[in-house]
Specification:
This protein has helices spanning 2-39, 47-54, 58-67, 74-98, 106-125, 130-161. It is an all-alpha fold. The N and C termini lie far apart (76 Å).
Length: 162
């Protein structure tokens, strides 16, 4: 009886270890995939045009984050990015629904989730580690820029098809 309990306990511990290792590997894959998507440089960058046409604030946020050595108001920058994110994600979803393929690309879905993760990380890190929060806001601005570029690419493709 005692040996049977011992075997069951070892099995539970082994399952727990496998679960933890799997979770760590998934998180590593997720972060690596997000950074890989964001590091890819498009042939033509439409983000600036889309930002100007739609009056988006992410270029200014990026300039403030990269140029400022003093502390910046991360909450204000994040609010500006949230506005841009909501607008672009809504436009992307509407465009994806109206296209023949339907739905968003896997990359876009991953980055939509990553934006939310970085927003949470920024909120958690801001009181403890300002540099970590700043990095999260910087990644959020890169995600918004990626979405702006995707919007520009889709618009250019739609014009070329007509």
């Amino acid at each position: 009886m005692l040996s049977r309990l011992w075997k069951e306990e070892r099995l539970m511990i082994g399952s727990f270890i496998v679960l933890i290792v799997s979770l760590i590997l998934f998180l590593y894959w997720f972060r690596y995939t997000c950074l890989l998507i964001l590091s890819a440089k498009p042939a033509r960058d439409y983000a600036g045009q889309v930002a100007q046409i739609n009056q988006l604030g992410f270029p200014g946020v990026r300039d403030q984050l990269r140029g400022a050595t003093a502390t910046v108001n991360l909450a204000r920058l994040e609010a500006s990015l949230d506005r841009d994110y909501r607008l672009l994600s809504c436009l992307l979803r509407q465009g994806a629904e109206s296209s023949e393929g339907g739905g968003l690309d896997l990359e876009d879905r991953i980055l939509l989730l990553d934006y939310k993760v970085m927003k949470l990380w920024s909120a958690l890190a801001r009181p403890i580690a300002a540099s970590q929060a700043r990095g999260a806001v910087e990644e959020m601005s890169d995600i918004v820029a990626h979405f702006a570029n995707v919007m520009g690419e889709r618009q250019a493709l739609a014009v070329a098809v007509r």
